[in-house]
Structure formats: structure tokens, C-alpha cells
């Protein structure tokens, strides 16, 4: 399982590096710093940053371009404190890695994608689907004034605050950690 994740991780890094090279010189009004640097600046994401570092997934947020992170804050981790206390133990690193990777995609989700979501006749309905680093597919849909991630395994997770732009992507604050609560 870990070997498969490392293979996917390395493949995604190589792909995103090539994408970054192809996009050099484009104008951008993004916030300074990478997604990881900006998450580290905000104390409310310290548990998520700790999980990224423990699993090694922090490296995916350094060089990747167009990375989108659905970041739970410390309060979201507190909702499942017993679960994450166990997952942070070394013997559970593989499961923690799988769960944290479910919060990361190299597909963009920002203002442009929101316009498509709100149009009456979307050009490409696949724009509503996000594939995570683990290969999980979530559907993003508007729900009144917020956006919602849904899948059969996670149910509904709400995007509370969105579009924290960075030099290499965007992160969004979500209402809870993404994992299969039925397991």
C-alpha cells in the first residue's frame, strides 16, 4: 500500500513539475508562498500540517502547481480526536497517509471552476469531480451559499471558507476531516 502511494506521489510530482514548466511566465495575482507555507502561517491548521509532515505529503505541496487542498482546521480534528490520536501512532502511518492524501488533489478548484458549477448548462460536467492523490473521486456541488464535497464513503463535507490562493494552488477550509466513518 505504501509502495503504491509513493509511486502515485512521485508520478504526481513529476507531472506537476512538467505542468509548472509549461506555465512559466503566466501572469498571476496569487498570494505569496506555497499552499504549505500558507497553511503553516495559520495556527488553526497546525494539526493538519503535523499530519502532512508525519506522512511526507508536505512535499507534495511544495513544488506542485495547481494543487488544491481541502484543509480541516484543528477543530475538525478535535471532532474525531480518538480516531486521530490512534492514527498519529507510528504503527498507523499507512492509514494516516491514506486519509491525509484524500484531502489533496492536483486538479484546480477555484473561482473559474465555481463559475462552471453555477452555470445553468456546464460545458463539462466532469469539472464537478475531483480525484484525490489516493484516487478517490469526490463530487463538488453548490449547496446554498457554500460548496459541498460528497461521495458514498465520506457523505457530505462542507467547504466553509474557500479560495485561499497561493503561488502553487489553493486551499479551502472544510467542516470535517475526510475519511470513511463506516470503517
Description:
A seven-stranded mixed β-sheet has the order 2-1-7-6-5-4-3. It is globular and about 45 Å long. The protein is α+β, with helices and mostly antiparallel strands and 183 residues long. It is built from eight helices and seven strands, in the order ααααβαααβαβββββ. It has one domain (2-16, 34-174): FAS1 domain. The protein has helices at residues 2-22, 35-41, 46-55, 60-63, 74-79, 81-87, 93-101, 111-118, and strands spanning 67-72, 104-105, 129-131, 137-143, 146-151, 155-166, 169-174.
How much helix, percentage-wise, in residues?
25-40%
What order do the helices and strands follow? HHHHEHHHEHEEEEE
With strands numbered from the N-terminus, the spatial order across the biggest sheet is 2-1-7-6-5-4-3
Q: List unreliable stretches of 5+ residues.
A: 5-29
The CATH level-2 architecture is identified as Roll
Q: In the CATH scheme, what's the topology name?
A: FAS1 domain
Q: Report the span from N to C terminus.
A: 17 Å
Question: Can you give keywords for this protein?
Answer:
FAS1 domain; about 180 residues; alpha+beta; single chain; globular; 8 helices; 7-stranded mixed beta sheet
